[in-house]
Write a structure and sequence with these properties.
The complex is a heterodimer of chains A (about 350) and B (about 300). Helix content of chain A is about 25%, strand content about 35%. Chain A has about 350 residues and is α+β, with helices and mostly antiparallel strands. Chain A is elongated. Chain A starts with a strand and ends in a 9-residue tail after the last strand. A two-stranded antiparallel sheet of chain B has the order 1-2. The chains are: A alpha+beta (about 350), B mainly alpha (about 300).
Chain lengths: ~350, ~300
């Protein structure tokens, strides 16, 4: 079975711990994205799976076998590198054929396989060229072709689309997804681009400082972020995280002070478990309704900056106490700079994070 | 247009002329000519009749260029000097004798290429090691290796002579080749290490993941990428070794004498003063092998020297 499993994997470089106690399992046919800001340990995790870095602690299990002490060439994996890492002195065709030499595949079979993947990835016309003679998109596809030309245990992608322009990125995203769907292999994709992760992954593992903060489906990590970091990392524009002072909770409504304003907003019932004190309220910019009259369930703020984004408009508003709030409204809603807004958060989309930043949810 | 005619003649084929303009191109040509002048003078001297070598004013050209050059600057070219390199009479009335220069040319070519190639093989492997598997104190070792080139030859020659005499390497091919190899190694390791340092480590990682062992990564992936570096290192090493005089003078025997040593002896023997045309003929012949190697490797050489200075 083509699976990947990390069991309490830790990787240290000297005194620096790049990956801390990571547990992750990827089923056959599943695509898992490691997502996080730069330096969060996602690429190190990938290199540990590939065997390019040894683990300090824990176990790397690929296809049911512990691979800790096996060098990369014995792990039977395929990897696509951020900078493609095509062999500069070999033609594109030879590049794609390279992994097949080690599998002892005969010349005719080799040519057939190269031609097959070249056809899938539209590379037939560049097979005889050198890597520095083809376009960025073709390089990406050649690197991809080299990975899928044989039948490895699993696929690893390191920021596969980061070097492409926006348009090409969109089409490649689709292509990669399509190719991967037909292969039923465990796949790990490292990216710092949440859109890439949300669109390509079956599950997303969000990393920060070497730790996995949350693993879940794209829908889960967006709708039910496990903590304030995940909440702020996923979604554009960023979720509003407002410091609040929780007073009481009764009948599904929490009384609290947010930026100097006393509010009574409906929240998750689990908030009842919290002691009164400091919490963080998370509301996505699209989860506000602007109402004409303010009441105890609305936050009043003044529009400071307006950014039209096409179908929607992003408003940067500021409360009297100086808290910044991002609000997205539809294009038809005309708001002028300086206008007073009464913002009512959608109770189903209002997240409460406790003092440690952990989501409070039933 | 003048340019199109010149273009057809092969001028300006490089876009350099268009960019730099004719003025600058000509200025560079003049400087280049000044640099080449001594070499050209030696080559011409090799073709002059013996008496012409020291004429004042000198003869300058083998042809009058359709009357452009006055007759007293024109010499009558001859191949006689080249013949005398290999065979000439050693006494005023004696019959021509073989000079042994064929042997010396063979020695020069054999010793220089053997030692440079040997240094290239050992040095490239060592450089790869230094670059990819750094030891604790890597830079110190590299520095120590370079110190062998910091002393002038004259400083180390006496202990080397003594050591060679004790182990019986004096005058043997093995001895001189070993010595040159050792001297070329420092240079080779430093050169090749910088080439390996420039390579993208991702490419090697990719090859490992694709199933290559360390050896295969080196031979199939790394080595093809540093061909320019190998060529550059080879040529520079060859030029240094080819022209080396002092070690060759003191450590080669009659059978292993190299051309620079033999040249020295040809000049100072015979008691007739220096035979300048003969010397020029030897020098001209001596130029040819290194000139050819450099010429055939020059594309690699240029890429080798400018390696890493262009955006990857």
């Amino acid at each position: 079975m083509s699976t990947i499993e990390l069991r309490k994997v830790t990787k240290r470089f000297g005194s620096f711990t790049a990956v801390k106690n990571v547990d992750l399992s990827v089923a056959a046919g599943e695509v898992v994205c490691l997502l996080g800001p730069s330096g969060c340990g996602k690429t190190t995790t990938l290199r540990v799976i590939a065997g390019l870095e040894s683990v300090t602690d824990g176990e790397v299990v690929i296809a049911g076998k512990v691979m800790n002490n096996l060098p990369p060439e014995k792990r039977d994996i395929a990897m696509v590198f951020q900078f493609y890492a095509l062999y500069p002195s070999a033609s594109v065709g030879e590049n794609i054929a390279f992994p097949l030499y080690h599998d002892g595949i005969s010349g005719a079979e080799r040519t057939a396989r190269v031609n097959r993947v070249a056809a899938i990835l539209h590379l037939e016309h560049v097979l005889d060229r050198l890597p520095n003679q083809i376009s960025e998109g073709e390089k990406q596809r050649a690197a991809m072709a080299r990975a899928i030309v044989r039948d490895p245990n699993c696929f690893l992608f390191d920021e596969p689309l980061s070097r492409l322009d926006v348009e090409l990125r969109q089409s490649m995203r689709g292509q990669i997804k399509e190719v991967l769907q037909g292969l039923s292999k465990a796949t790990v994709i490292v990216t710092h681009d949440q859109l890439e992760a949300l669109t390509m992954a079956d599950r997303i593992a969000i990393m920060k400082d070497g730790l996995i903060e949350q693993v879940g489906s794209p829908h889960e990590v967006f709708a039910k972020p496990a903590n304030a970091f995940v909440a702020s990392f996923i979604g554009t524009p960023q979720m509003n995280l407002l410091e609040a002072d929780l007073k009481t909770f009764a009948d599904g409504t929490a009384e609290m002070t947010v930026a100097g304003i006393n509010l009574a907003i409906r929240t998750d019932a689990a908030v009842a478990r919290l002691q009164p004190g400091k919490v963080t309220i998370g509301v996505r910019p699209r989860a506000f309704t602007a109402t004409d009259t303010g009441d105890r369930g609305t936050i009043s703020a003044r529009a400071e900056l307006i950014e039209p984004m096409g179908a929607e408009t992003l408003i940067h508003a500021r409360t009297a106490a100086g808290a910044d709030i991002r609000v997205v409204v539809t294009r038809s809603q005309r708001v002028k700079v300086g206008e007073a807004l009464n913002l009512r958060p959608d109770p189903r989309q209002t997240h409460v994070f406790d003092g440690a930043g952990k989501a409070v949810r039933s | 247009m003048a340019e199109s005619i010149l273009g057809k003649l092969g001028f300006g084929r490089a876009s350099g002329v268009d960019k730099a303009g004719w003025g600058r191109t000509l200025a560079v040509a003049v400087v280049a000519f000044i640099y080449f002048l001594p070499v050209l003078f030696i080559i011409f001297t090799a073709f002059k009749p013996q008496g012409d070598a020291l004429l004042v004013p000198p003869t300058l050209s083998p042809t009058s260029l359709f009357g452009l050059i006055p007759d007293h600057f024109v010499f009558k070219p001859t191949l006689e000097n080249f013949g005398s390199v290999f065979s000439r009479s050693m006494t005023p009335d004696g019959a021509p004798e073989a000079t042994g220069f064929d042997r010396y040319f063979f020695n020069s070519i054999f010793i220089a290429s053997a030692s440079v190639l040997l240094a290239l093989v050992i040095g490239t492997l060592a450089a790869f090691g230094f670059s990819r598997y750094p030891l604790k104190g890597n830079d110190t070792y590299l520095f120590i290796i370079l110190t062998t080139r910091m002393l002038p030859a004259i400083v180390v020659i006496i202990p080397v002579i003594l050591m060679f005499r004790v182990v019986g390497l004096s005058g043997s091919y093995l001895g001189i080749i070993m010595l040159y190899t050792a001297f070329n190694l420092a240079f080779t390791i430093w050169m090749m290490k910088s080439f390996f340092d420039e390579l993208s480590p991702d490419v090697e990682d990719a090859a490992r993941i694709d199933g290559s062992s360390g050896m295969r990564v080196f031979f199939k992936i790394c080595l093809p990428q540093v061909i320019a570096g190998l060529a550059a290192t080879f040529v520079f090493g060859l030029i240094l070794t080819w022209n080396e005089f002092l070690f060759a003078l003191l450590l080669s025997g009659p059978d292993t004498r190299t051309v620079p040593v033999a040249m020295n002896q040809a000049v100072s023997s015979g008691g007739r003063g220096t035979d300048w045309t003969l010397l020029a003929a030897i020098e001209t012949l001596f130029l040819i092998p290194v000139f050819l190697v450099t010429f055939f490797l020059q594309n690699h050489l240029l890429r080798g020297v400018t390696f890493g200075t262009v955006k990857r």
